[in-house]
Specification:
heterodimer, A: about 280 residues, mainly alpha, 8 helices, B: alpha+beta, 7-stranded antiparallel β-sheet, about 30% helix
Chain lengths: ~280, ~450
């Protein structure tokens, strides 16, 4: 199936609109305590995901490589993984339901942002034809999705602990929000760490070295250490409540700097696809 | 001894160490490092941060990763992790055998042993111990007690072996042009070796026989092969093929094919006095027939100008496998272009004050030769970290502890090793199943 660049861009914007509608329904459901709106929002989001999946698949076939070369492909697949992970984790842990208030807008914002990165066909260097690259990138995307959920729960914890009444009372108890954000930070830490290790195996296979203190590598290790410190504080120093929520938000911001900031600003080999 | 051990494994020390290492790594991303910056880049940074120079020099902050202090910190971290792993082995074994009910929830009472065992089995809790006749202990995911231990053992192994690799590894990179031999006594294009290793020497003369590139239907290189031959001092010749993402092993060394390859152009420059200068210019493989591949800008001792080149794989811009590439030469001075010329094979032209001729086009590729040991252990450490992390965060153990009452039935307690809140539904399900016996 052939797809022109114009059609690809137009289709992506259509998916953005579907996700925006899902977000509006979802946030309205949360604000006005209408379960029906939330259920509708999930159905709309499923439609958006189905279209999004089709678009990624067609573009994959068109350009001959996975969604990890051009910045628009990277952000689009990040958005897809965030939404997909939310639905997978929602099935396993139904109490994370309110995290949709952050996961849904994060999805449409990433997809919309991807359209401003000059969509086009990028060539795939021969070194990128490795299964370790897919594992490396895939795990980082899942780590981002789990950290979005963890951060959403931490933000809700802070909001709920400061405000009485309103839609926030629909959220699970403070204790539940706290423990769930801790658990999802743990998942994010593990996916991040394994993604980093998979990257170093790929680097060893391609360049003969498994670590090179490249700026993105270094920031990835810093992120890993910061999450390690956060988990250490929670486990051994009984850090919890608002301090834990703030610590998690800081770690989440550091992870965003690593994934997007370093990729855009630094002279890292990881930044090639963002140029 | 005990005090030293207590200090090494103190939680505050571990936390401080993590933050200190993260802080040093952060500094390395804002202060240019000798390992990945040119002296020029470091000089520019120093000019812009003159007031910080004394601090940077005092702590040798342009070489954070190669100074003994950093190595000592990493070694200390490895030591702390190692001692902590040793302690955690006993903690894990204790948790596995402990049958305390202090932090457990009572979920049912008056339960028979038969029913208890059936419910435990149905919910995937396995009987671990029945040492005391007053208590029975069932655990779901008993291996979860060892997750943290494995995580720490893996990290210890990776850190220690990585340090060993950094100290003993040696490597060199070569840019080879088809048909031109590179003698083992000739210097590498780039080389480095660890503090405890001597410089790497090739086992013989290496020659690039051919570079073969396979393209997919979108003109993108799918596979790149470099056929090489190595002639040892004894006269023995080995023919080998290196390719991207496939490690080639020879004489205890590993040979990597980099993503740098393309056409090498043999060009003669004739100046106004009639002197002829020959240069071989290597430019990177273009990514499509309509895009150019570029060389680096470089200086030559016979001209005041800088020289650079780009080329198209096909002068007609239609094919990636054409035998008629088009070369563009450029002379610059002070960042300003002085002259440009385009050439095809056998043709000559004017490049400013020089008469230039393209005599020959051949292929080139860059290979990296590495001699190091210990990598299998690093990857074993990675595997242990992955397994430990997954077990620790995804499979926390849950326990059913049954205490025998005077009349022979059991009171049953439930607890989770961590993330208790997550398993409330499971606890309630087990409790309901246990109570069914009483109801019936």
């Amino acid at each position: 199936m052939k797809m022109s660049l114009e059609l690809y861009i137009a289709s992506n914007w259509a998916v953005v609109i579907v996700y925006v509608l899902a977000t509006i329904a979802n946030v309205s459901g949360a604000l006005f305590r209408k379960d029906r709106f939330e259920r509708i929002s999930y159905r709309i989001a499923w439609v958006g995901m189905a279209l999004h999946t089709g678009l990624i698949a067609v573009w994959w076939a068109e350009v001959g490589h996975g969604p990890y070369m051009a910045p628009n492909e990277v952000l689009s697949s990040d958005a897809w993984v965030t939404m997909a992970s939310y639905f997978v984790f929602l099935r396993i842990y139904p109490r994370i339901r309110p995290a949709s208030v952050l996961a849904f807008p994060a999805t449409f914002l990433m997809l919309a942002l991807s359209m401003f990165y000059n969509p086009g066909i990028r060539t795939l260097p021969a070194t990128f034809r490795s299964v370790w690259l897919l594992i490396h990138i895939g795990l980082y995307k899942i780590a981002l999705a789990t950290l979005v959920i963890a951060c959403a729960l931490a933000i809700f914890y802070l909001l709920k602990s400061r405000t009485e009444g309103g839609w926030l009372q629909q959220l699970p108890s403070l204790e539940t929000l706290d423990i769930y954000s801790y658990r999802f930070a743990g998942f994010g830490f593990i996916f991040w760490t394994i993604g980093m290790l998979a990257g170093s195996i790929w680097a060893y296979q391609s360049w003969g070295r498994f670590w090179g203190w490249d700026p993105t590598e270094t920031w990835s290790l810093i992120t890993c250490l910061m999450f390690g410190a956060y988990l250490h504080l929670r486990r051994f120093f009984r850090l919890q409540g608002p301090y834990a929520a703030w610590a998690l938000i800081v770690c989440f911001i550091i992870s965003l700097v690593t994934l997007f900031g370093m990729a855009t600003l630094s002279g890292s080999i990881h930044s090639e696809y963002f140029k | 001894m005990n005090k030293a051990k207590q200090f090494i494994t103190a939680r505050r020390v571990s936390l401080g160490l993590i933050l200190l290492l993260a802080g040093l790594m952060y500094l390395s991303t804002i202060i240019p490092q000798g390992i990945d910056s040119t002296p020029g880049q470091i000089g520019v940074w120093r000019l812009g941060h003159a007031r910080l120079s004394w601090l940077v020099d005092a702590f040798n902050l342009h070489s954070i990763y190669s100074q003994p202090l950093f190595a000592a910190l990493v070694l200390f971290a490895a030591l702390a992790l190692g001692v902590s792993s040793y302690d955690q082995l006993f903690v894990s074994l204790n948790k596995l055998s402990s049958s305390g009910t202090a932090s457990a929830d009572e979920v049912a009472t008056g339960i028979t042993e038969l029913h208890l065992c059936a419910v435990a089995r149905a919910n995937r809790y396995r009987l671990l111990q029945a040492g005391s006749d007053r208590k029975l202990k069932f655990v779901r995911n008993p291996w979860g007690f060892f997750g943290n231990l494995l995580l720490h053992i893996g990290m210890t192994l990776v850190i220690i072996v990585s340090l060993y690799v950094a100290l003993t590894a040696r490597q060199g990179a070569l840019i080879l042009v088809e048909g031109e031999p590179h003698d083992s006594r000739q210097p590498w294009d780039v080389s480095e070796h660890g503090l405890l290793a001597s410089p790497l020497l090739l086992p013989g003369t290496i020659r690039l026989d051919a570079v073969r590139v396979q393209f997919d239907n979108k003109h993108q290189p799918k596979e790149v092969f470099s056929d090489i031959s190595i002639t040892e001092a004894s006269g023995r010749v080995d023919s080998l093929t290196a390719s991207i993402n496939r490690i080639l092993r020879f004489g205890g060394m590993r040979i990597y094919h980099t993503a740098q390859y393309g056409n090498a152009f043999a060009v003669t420059f004739t100046d106004k006095s009639g002197s002829i200068h020959s240069e071989t210019i290597a430019a990177q493989q273009p990514t499509s027939p309509t895009e150019a591949g570029y060389s680096e800008e470089f200086g030559v001792n016979w001209s005041p100008y800088l020289l650079s080149a780009k080329y198209y794989a096909d002068a007609d811009k239609k094919s990636m496998t054409s035998t008629n590439p088009e070369l563009f030469l450029r002379l610059t001075q002070g960042g300003k272009e002085i002259a440009q010329a385009s050439l095809t094979k056998g043709r000559s032209g004017e490049l400013g004050e020089y008469q230039v001729q393209l005599n020959k086009v051949s292929r080139w590729s860059k290979l990296i030769v590495v001699d190091s040991s210990g990598m299998p252990l690093v990857f074993t450490g990675f595997g242990i970290i992955m397994i430990g992390g997954l077990i620790h965060y995804s499979m926390p153990p849950r326990e059913l502890i049954a205490v025998r009452q005077q009349h022979g039935s059991f009171t049953v307690f439930w607890k989770a090793a961590s993330f208790r809140e997550f398993f409330m539904d499971e606890r309630d399900k087990v409790a309901t199943a246990l109570k069914k016996e009483n109801e019936s």
